[in-house]
């Protein structure tokens, strides 16, 4: 086990240059005289990225509903494709939301009752709601003839975007205030996502689905 003194030494600012002006000056001099490890600059990087972008293929898959599925007959196929894509996005987001609140619950249980913020009961309640929303969206996609296991483009992006929030919640250095700030980002995004989903359901005439979501 590390000593208390060593632990306190680790809590200081180890990145700010102004804490050590002499070493900062030495660092700047060293970087100015250093030779690049490879040829080229930012222009070459941008060119390489451009090549990857031009050759890239779309994220995720839009094959959520079989072409012969009668559920799409007589409807705006493009609109239904967008609707299923956004349903898949909400499915991915609610799945991650369940995990986010599980991570927050684990942190609060570890730190004890003196942790500022929501109670364990409140966190458990929100986590259960996230799971219920996930199951609701899963059933809705299935009822529309879609495949909830397909990772649609929006679902893929939502999963990647949510990873940063999970990293904050699982980082042992994060304070409770920082965790709640990260969760606020998720909740605000989630609220707007549900509003858009309801609007899409209304536009497509799925009144029954709109009332459930």
Summarize the structure.
With 213 residues, this protein is an all-alpha fold.
The sequence of SSEs as H and E is HHHHHHHH
What fraction of the residues are assigned to beta strands by DSSP?
under 5%
Q: What is the count of β-strands? A: 0
CATH-level-2 architecture of the domain at 79-212: Up-down Bundle
Look at the structure and give the mean pLDDT: 83
CATH C-level label of the domain at 79-212: Mainly Alpha
Walkthrough of the structure:
68% of the residues lie in helices and 0% in strands. With 213 residues, the chain is mainly α. The protein has a domain at 79-212: Ferritin, core subunit, four-helix bundle (Ferritin, Up-down Bundle), CATH 1.20.1260.10. It is flat and about 70 Å long.
Write the topology of this structure.
Blueprint: H1 4-9, H2 21-33, H3 42-55, H4 77-111, H5 120-143, H6 153-170, H7 176-203, H8 207-212
Helix pairs in contact: 4-5, 4-6, 4-7, 6-7
Descriptive keywords:
213 residues, Ferritin, 8 helices, mainly alpha, disordered N terminus, flat
